[in-house]
């Protein structure tokens, strides 16, 4: 476990999955969900080299068929600390014999956490160390404690989006995959979305086509942002496990999404796939802001 701190935040990160474990403010208040198998045991896994699920758990590339579990393998692997300072840490993961059996590409994935005042900057860097083009998806899955909601109570809350007009969503619950259909996000008014347990009866709320760039979780007592997630990703998922009254909400910037229902095409042609030529790199960042 590595600890980062400045005058406003203290953050802990695990070598396993390079996963955020804790985000506390200067008064010791915890903002990150602490994991509980009764609801969801993880806290902030990194999704790589796929986001969400494959049709029947398989995909086709380079003339062969492979199997890979939901969200890929990075979240369950030990990363190595490359650099460390009081307010930042960089982790790195490279291909192994085990990864090559389910993902036949060589890569180096680095993840940096950097504190800037009351913000956590999460920086992804994917480098193609192979001799051929590689294809990948990457995403975040941080879970935040819902302000004003106690364990066992019905969940409810309000999000503020950086967009005030109509927002369209897609569903990812067609045997774990998506379709081309899009639907207006119900209950969204002027950029505010009041949600409750029933808002997630169809699984994650998935918003693609770069419709959003920032989502705030509002404190019900003050109507001010408790947590803000900013991103440039083409897709974002909003999720809490339906039917459990789990007192947390995930806001998940994604460079990728589920397979389409009954998808039998090539891995490289999946919706929201990223491609790198040999020696090339992909970099992106999302930001978690605590308070205002």
UniProtKB/TrEMBL annotation:
Pfam families: Aldose_epim
GO biological process: carbohydrate metabolic process
Superkingdom of this protein's organism: Bacteria
CDD domains per record: Aldose_epim_lacX (cd09024)
MF annotations from Gene Ontology: carbohydrate binding; isomerase activity
Keyword set, alphabetical order: Calcium
Cofactor(s) essential for the protein: Ca(2+)
Subunit organization: Monomer.
Protein name according to UniProt: Aldose 1-epimerase family protein
């Amino acid at each position: 476990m590595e600890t980062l701190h400045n005058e406003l935040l203290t953050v802990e990160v695990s070598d396993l999955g390079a996963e955020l474990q804790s985000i506390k403010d200067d008064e010791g208040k915890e903002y990150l969900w602490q994991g509980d198998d009764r609801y969801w045991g993880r806290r902030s896994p990194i999704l790589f080299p796929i986001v969400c699920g494959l049709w029947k758990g398989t995909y086709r590339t380079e003339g062969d068929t492979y199997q890979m579990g939901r969200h890929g393998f990075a979240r369950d692997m030990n990363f190595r600390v490359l650099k460390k300072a009081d307010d930042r840490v960089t982790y790195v993961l490279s291909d192994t014999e085990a990864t090559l059996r389910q993902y036949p590409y060589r890569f180096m994935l680095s993840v940096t956490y950097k504190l800037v005042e009351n913000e956590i900057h999460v920086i992804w860097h994917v480098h193609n160390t192979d001799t051929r083009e590689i294809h990948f998806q990457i995403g975040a899955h941080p879970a935040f404690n819902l302000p004003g909601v106690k364990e066992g109570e019905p969940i409810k809350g309000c999000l503020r989006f950086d967009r005030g007009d109509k927002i369209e969503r897609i569903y990812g619950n067609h045997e774990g995959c998506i379709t081309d259909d899009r639907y207006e996000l119900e209950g969204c008014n002027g950029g505010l979305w009041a949600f409750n347990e029933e808002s997630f009866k169809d699984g994650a709320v998935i918003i693609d086509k770069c419709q959003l760039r920032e989502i705030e979780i509002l404190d019900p007592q003050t109507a001010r942002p408790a947590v803000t997630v900013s991103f440039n990703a083409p897709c974002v998922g909003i999720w809490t496990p339906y039917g459990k009254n789990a007192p947390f909400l995930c806001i998940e910037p994604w460079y990728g999404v589920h397979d389409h229902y009954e998808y039998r095409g090539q891995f490289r042609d999946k919706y929201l796939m990223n491609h790198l030529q040999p020696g090339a790199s992909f970099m992106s960042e999302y930001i978690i802001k605590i308070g205002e």
